[in-house]
Task: structure prediction
Amino acid sequence: MLYKRQEYFRHSFGTPLKASFRILVGEGANESNPGDCLLLDISPGGTKIATDFNLPVEKEPVSVRLHFTLFETPIEIGGKFVWKKQSVGGFQYGIDFVEDPSISKLIVDELKLRRRTEVGATDGKKS
Result:
């Protein structure tokens, strides 16, 4: 069986990041009111979130617009819910992002900046 999904690195957060999402409804892509969620991990291709909302994503693909900041630059990206799992205190969802090379690059760049501040800019570097 061939698996066509492009593999990405995945960055897990020690402390989940606050984010918000809106469900895209109908052909006109009307957006729902924002809902709060936490980013548990992220890659340029998708993310895992946790939220209190029990979303009906099992029957058909549900589009979503996610808003978050990894380091400095606010990021807004669309995607689709691809899986759902009940967890303690709520639900976890997997989201595959819509392919956008500029947003993928921004995610990688922001993760690099975040990581540098977490471990210190001079650790492991030789002058």
In short: The radius of gyration is 16 Å. The chain has a mean pLDDT of 87. DSSP finds one helix and seven strands in the chain. Residues 8 and 43 are 6 Å apart (CA to CA).
